[in-house]
Design a protein that fits this description.
The protein has 294 residues and is an alpha/beta fold. Helices cover 44% and strands 16% of the residues. It has an eight-stranded mixed sheet with strand order 3-4-2-5-1-6-7-8, with helices on both faces.
Length: 294
């Protein structure tokens, strides 16, 4: 059996074979029902509309629903890839809105405890992609399961979705705290969703930042607010991204602005220049950090 160092060496060797590195973005928030999946789908569609190759990964392995928002019926999922039954290319579906989707499935919470052969299999699956995306968007699940934090840690950028609810702010704080304490993540982009009236997003962000400034050594960057918009709800019912179905609506304009910001993000210098870097971070074992956090 290969040693841990042997696996890392194999991963790094594969990383030298490809010169393209996508930007990887995780959509998170802790609380369910705050619109993470809708933001992930619309960000993917808006980025694709600006001529970027986008792969959306549905990281909710218990209640995967990105395919439902898009009217997709995927034949294969990430579970088939991990089981070795299908290649990653076979498991990826192309939707009608210009981007690709890797559907999740229940029973993949074991992602946190993959064996060495599965680790290499997952990395090889990414290294064998025929078309490497420019951007990978990861729609994480609600809660703080190992799968959620592992997918978040694998991403280069984390978008935390909040709304004007005490439970949303409490769960977002808990998520940020865990990512800082267990994975050393310091930088988070914040999106205020379902904002009712101009300025509400900034006010909600300020409440969260006051607490994190007091207790956590992190940097929160206010990205934008997404208005509470009946056109968004209509698009969800019709299984379409609002940026395509109602491009002039308030929520669509805000989401296209988010995509404009995200398309300016570039992979950090620490990457080795390949999509395998994402897979390597995905399977990296978290190390608990001895820090005093509130």
């Amino acid at each position: 059996m290969a040693s841990g160092n042997g696996i890392l060496e194999q991963v790094q060797h594969m990383g030298r074979s490809n010169a393209h590195c996508p930007t990887t973005i995780a959509i998170a928030g802790g609380k369910g029902g705050i619109g993470k999946s809708a933001i992930a789908v619309n960000l993917s569609a808006a980025l694709a509309g600006s001529h970027r190759r986008v792969l959306l990964i549905d990281g909710d392995f218990a209640l995967a629903n990105a395919d439902l928002l898009l009217g997709l019926t995927p034949k294969y999922t990430l579970r088939d890839v991990l089981d070795g039954a299908r290649s990653l290319d076979e498991a990826i579906s192309v939707c009608n809105f210009g981007f690709s989707v890797l559907a999740g499935a229940s029973g993949i919470s074991r992602l946190a405890t993959l064996g060495e052969s599965e680790i290499l299999g997952l990395v090889r699956a990414f290294s064998s992609l025929k078309s490497v995306p420019d951007t990978v968007v990861i729609d994480t699940a609600a809660g703080l399961s190992p799968a959620v934090t592992r997918l978040s840690h694998a991403a280069q950028e984390i978008l935390v979705v909040i709304c004007d609810e005490p439970a949303s702010l409490a769960d977002a704080y808990a998520y940020i705290k865990v990512m800082r304490r267990n994975h050393g993540v310091r930088r988070f982009h914040i999106i205020a969703n379902m904002a009712r009236g101009d300025g509400e997003g900034g006010r909600v962000f300020a409440m969260l930042k006051r607490v994190t400034d007091r207790f956590l050594d992190v940097s929160l960057r206010y990205t934008c607010e997404i208005p509470d918009d009946p056109y968004m709800r209509r698009a969800i019912r019709n299984q379409q991204p609002v940026v395509i179905a109602h491009p002039g609506s308030p929520s669509a304009r805000a989401l296209k602005y988010l995509a404009k910001l995200a398309s300016a993000w570039s992979p950090p210098a620490e990457t080795r220049g390949t999509i395998e870097f994402f897979a390597e971070r995905l399977i990296a074992r978290p190390t608990a950090r001895l820090e005093l956090v509130g």
